[in-house]
Each structure stands twice: as structure tokens, then as C-alpha cells.
Input
Amino acid sequence: MDTKFRERIKKLLIDLNIYDENINIDTFCRALTHSTYANEHKNVKDFQYLEFLGDSILQFLVSKEIYRLYPEYKEGRATQHRSYAVNNKTLSEVSEKIGLSENILFSKNAFLNGKNEKINSDFFEAFTAAIYLEKGLDFTDKFIKKHLKDYLLNEKIEKDPKTTFQELIQLNGSCKIIYKTDFLEELGKFQSAIIVDNKKYGIGFGKTKKEAKENAAKNALKSLNV
Output
């Protein structure tokens, strides 16, 4: 592992009050190593498997905290709040705020168009897994509560455009909503069309499938004057 990178991560851990002499810094280095760098360097592991673990840990800890804070919630409301607290936008904002995004190790050809919310979010999940593996669940719980506090305590949650469109279009009965999504190589983006009963309501573009679908839903709502 690159020595300078290792020192950067140690400083990051000190700044975040995570570091102690018993932890394995390499776990955190792996959590912030992109696959493009790992592919170019022998015996270097990337963040992706840690991301898989971190996603589950984050879902559990946030669900537990929402259950504690809002005992009056119904399941749907709790799910909506959790989605808000752990979506790509939220985790990307936190990732940038605490300095993760600026400490990612990647090849020089990666992110030529800049890092997007999905990438920053994925690394936050991987970093969460590293904290769990090196510091335990209780410490991870406190870390998540501290850095997601503003999102956990925010009850004024705007519904995402896909949910809003679904609820609106199904006011008069259930109907099947289809998102037809394709990658357009000439644009380097995904295109998604939202279709209900063979009628196209909106088209959206994005760097990820999720972003394209959300933009399609936003445009569909505009077509309905919402």
C-alpha cells in the first residue's frame, strides 16, 4: 500500500477521532481504494466488498435509530425516512463533509468527469464497514448518529419524485409503471422513460440508472403540472 496514502488515512482517522494504536489502518485504506487503482497494482484490494457489508450495517443502525426516535411512525413513513437518511445525496454530502471523498485512492484515468454522488456514497458505506470491523458495532453506532444527526432528526422529508408520481398516477386505481432505461454511449449517460399504460409521461437522463429514473419522474410530474 502506498505509504503517503497510508499516512493520509491515519491523519483522517485522527481527525475523526477513530484512530487508536490497536486498529489496522489497512482496513480503512482498502475502504477508500477504488477498483481502478487496485486493478493496476498487484495484491491491492478495493472497497467494493466492504461497501456490501457497510450498506447492511448502515441500514440496520439507521433503522434502529429511527425506530427509537419515532415510535409513532408507521412502516411506510419509517421506510421513507430511512431512504432519505441513507440515499446517495445524503451520504455523498456527509462523505465530503468529513473528508472521505478527498482521500480516495484511484488511478489517474478515473473520474475524468468528476466524482458523482453514487461514488461518494459507496465509499461512505465501505468506510462504515471498516469502522465496524476495527472498532465494533457500538462505536460505529455512535459515529453514524453523530454524522447523520441532521438527517435523522429532520421530520420534514420531501418525497422522492418517483414516489410522488406513483401516488398521483394511482389515485384512481392501481396501474403498472414501467421505467425503460438504456445507456446512451454517444452521450455517456443513461436515459430513462417512464411509461404507464403504453403512454410515455417523461424522459430523464443521468450518470446512473437511479438518477435517470428520478429525472424522468420529475419531468413526468411537470407534464402533470405538479
DSSP finds eleven helices and three strands in the chain. The mean pLDDT is 89. The chain has two domains: 3-153, 161-224. Strands lie at 177-184, 189-196, 199-206.
